[in-house]
Specification:
The chain has 20 helices and 18 strands. The protein is an alpha/beta fold. Among the domains are: 121 residues, Chitobiase, domain 2; 263 residues, Glycosidases (TIM Barrel), CATH 3.20.20.80. An eight-stranded parallel β-barrel has the order 7-8-9-10-11-12-13-16. A six-stranded mixed beta sheet has the order 2-1-3-5-4-6. Strand 4 and strand 5 form a beta hairpin. The model has no long low-confidence stretch (mean pLDDT 96). It binds beta-D-glucopyranuronic acid.
């Protein structure tokens, strides 16, 4: 049990369910003959052999007995089913009686719907649910559900904590690692339908024939699973690999170069998804290098892929090195003026918060800032800022917090959430999407730790249905990854649900952000104030001095609050009405500021750092008690990682408190243990082995 099988473990069902499953499914037929249907057949055979603990054959026509039948509505026309509104990718699972036998039916409009339904039924069983009387319809709310791999061509994964890139460029195209198929299965099982193979800090070389020839077989492997391949486009590619002397989007030669390049890519990959672009951000080239704007750049690429049905995902993660600017405001300022000017096949890909994947941020104001621009969400699955792979932090709660956040009010007084703005606010399904920066690598367990698999899983589930609640998703995952036994699920799901807040507490409580150490972002560095760019320094974000702490983004400060809708602006402009969680994001306050709890701000900060450590201690205890339910190998690794997490949570608490004590000139309130070292000790630590170093 090394975690390789993810949510596809197909363990046999419990004694109380297995006889019934066996009775309801004595024969199986999956109708159709496409590679996608073949994949469904294969998955059903493997899955049921495990769950029912007997050999099953999956036929292509409907046999006698209680039968599981799957196919498109057209293929199932003999059954005269009522067509459910499943859309192009959804499915329905129902039961009916026919001639004295029970038929369990998976029906869809498309072959990919049949495959999704196959996974849906298997998962239903893996979660320990009865299938008698099953009646469900599932369809995705978003159209583009993508993983973004930050994988370099040398197989180094930027912010990756799970080994090397899965893409073995050296052995491609001749060797197709079977792992590519397992990757596709795992993703199809959660509804992911796109993958951007390469780092947003892009290397133009991936667009050369040498690499396109290698990307093509990946697309071939993924295609039956409904997954399209996307590539990152380096804006200066026409210069670097095209021999032109400019990449100016208004230059006709440049436009023609991209058109020809698109054509070439589609020759290799006929269903190529399109480009993901990071431009004019952190040193990446872009249209602004030629005094053009984001719309000019995005539209040029969009025009090149449009004839082939491709899209462009243009990232809104932009900020200039300007001390007078609040970095949190910049994306809004660079994109809102161009609202309505982007082509129909452009989606602006916006990180969930206005800064950068911090343990907690308010949602990005862009989600409510544009009316005629398609936006897609970008979440970071890999835990760059939440403890890498060794800290247990279930991100479902964080993403739910963003997706469910009230973002706008209509004239009729109806409150719209971020999801509404992103999905229904647009032309629903047809133009929406969600991207997750992948946490996947060559580690046997794929994600660097078992519990990080839950984040990959949760991303897929929430991209499919942003209305799902994080707890339901955690339960599904834990049931399939370990056991559906409630004695295990209840405490473990509770532990997962509190885990991200624990990280917020011991790293950046009360709206603090970006206190991580330089470069690798491993461990605390609140004292760092000497990096070239002001907005790379933790001190820029917390602004602590002897009087107080916090970033004033209120109307008397940077006024970032004005980028939000009126009702939020009002609430967040005043510290008295700002929720504690965002207090120091929006306000700079005296250490003696009186909190709702009755504590002073300083006491509250200390309280949170301590609470974070206590919570991790409690998580360790919970996990220790789970040994009877989990195989020894996975149990031990998780226990070891939790021990690392506790050690590092203490380190965060002690280093941050030591620093804030020094800056504020305050002692800890009674009852709290003093940090064992002074701040100079914590400053002197360095980590040559931290991933992402250098
Ligand atoms: C930051 C990462 C950096 C990425 C950047 C991005 O530290 O490695 O290149 O985001 O999203 O959080 O482009």
């Amino acid at each position: 049990e090394d975690g390789y099988d993810l949510w596809l473990r197909y363990e046999q069902a419990s004694e109380d369910l297995r006889p019934d499953y066996r009775k309801q499914i004595s024969a199986i037929a999956i109708l159709g003959d496409s590679p996608t249907i073949a994949a469904a057949r294969q998955e059903m055979a493997t899955g049921l052999a495990g769950i029912l603990d007997k050999t099953v054959t999956v036929g292509t026509s409907v046999p006698r007995g209680n039968t599981l039948v799957a196919g498109t509505y057209d293929a199932l026309s003999d059954l005269d089913l009522d067509r459910a509104d499943v859309g192009p990718e959804g499915y329905a699972i129902t039961q009916m009686r026919r001639d004295g036998r029970i038929l369990t039916i998976i029906a869809a409009d498309s072959d990919i719907g049949v495959l999704y339904g196959t996974f849906g039924l298997l998962q239903h069983m893996l979660q320990g649910e009865p299938i008698a009387g099953i009646d469900l319809v599932s369809r995705p709310a978003t159209q583009h559900r993508l993983l973004n791999h930050w994988d370099n061509l040398d197989r180094y994964v930027e912010r990756g904590y799970a080994g090397q890139s899965l893409w073995d460029w050296h052995k491609l195209p001749d060797y197709r690692d079977p792992r590519y198929t397992d990757y596709a299965r795992a993703n199809a099982a959660i509804g992911v339908n796109g993958t951007s193979l390469t780092n947003v800090n892009a290397n133009a070389e991936v667009l050369t024939p040498q690499y396109l020839e290698k990307a093509a077989p990946l697309a071939d492997v993924f295609r039956p699973y409904g997954i399209k391949v996307y590539l990152t486009a380096r804006f200066s590619a026409p210069i670097e690999i095209g021999g032109l002397d400019t990449a100016d989007p208004s230059n006709e030669e440049v436009q023609a170069w991209w058109e020809a390049k698109a054509e070439e890519i589609y020759n290799y990959i006929p269903d190529f998804g399109g480009f993901l672009v990071k431009a004019n951000s952190e040193g990446q080239p872009g249209p602004q290098d030629y005094d053009r704007n984001h719309a000019d750049g995005a539209n040029m690429l969009a025009d090149a892929v449009a004839p082939h049905g491709g899209i462009v995902m243009w990232r809104a993660f932009v900020y200039a090195a300007d001390e007078t600017q609040d970095r949190a405001k910049q994306a809004w300022e660079e994109f809102v003026p161009f609202d309505g000017q982007f082509r129909d096949n452009v989606l602006i890909q916006v990180k969930n918060g206005p800064i950068d994947f911090q343990p907690r941020e308010p949602f990005s104001p862009l989600f409510a800032g544009v009316e005629d621009t398609k936006l897609m969400m970008e979440f970071q699955i890999t835990k760059e800022y939440l403890g890498f792979a060794t800290h247990l932090a279930y991100l479902g709660t964080m993403w739910e917090e963003t997706l469910d956040a009230p973002a706008q009010r209509t004239e009729e007084g109806e409150t719209l959430t971020v999801t509404d703005m992103m999905v229904s606010g647009n032309d629903a399904y047809t133009v929406s999407g969600m991207a997750g920066v992948a946490n996947i690598g060559t580690d046997r367990n794929w994600s660097g730790s078992i519990f990080d698999q839950a984040n990959w899983y949760a991303f897929g589930r929430l991209a499919w249905d942003p209305a799902l609640d994080a707890e339901t998703v955690a339960r599904e995952w834990a049931a399939m990854t370990f056991t559906p036994d409630r004695a295990f699920l209840d405490p473990v799901v509770a532990m997962m649900m509190g885990s991200r807040e624990a990280v917020v507490d011991y790293m950046t409580p009360l709206g603090l952000h970006h206190l991580m150490d330089t470069g690798h972002h491993y461990g605390p560095g609140p004292w760092v104030d000497d990096l070239d760019r002001p907005d790379w320094n933790p001190a820029y974000y917390h602004k602590a001095d002897e009087d107080g702490i916090g970033f004033d983004r209120s109307s008397s400060g940077s006024d970032a609050v004005s980028q939000y809708a009126g009702f939020l602006r009002e609430e967040w402009d005043d510290p008295e009405t700002t929720p504690d969680e965002l207090l120091l994001w929006f306000h700079h306050l005296s250490w003696d500021y009186e909190m709702r709890s009755g504590r002073t701000l300083w006491e509250e900060i200390v309280h949170h750092y301590q609470r974070g450590v206590d919570e991790v201690e409690a998580m360790r205890e919970t996990w220790d008690g789970m040994a009877p339910y989990v195989d020894a190998e996975r149990h031990a690794q998780i226990a070891d990682f939790l021990a690392i997490q506790e050690k590092e949570a203490r380190w965060w608490r002690n280093a941050c408190l030591a620093y804030f004590m020094e800056v504020s000139g305050r002692d800890l309130p009674d009852g709290y243990e003093a940090p064992p070292h002074d701040v100079d000790h914590y400053k002197s630590l360095y980590f040559p082995s931290a991933p992402g170093n250098g």
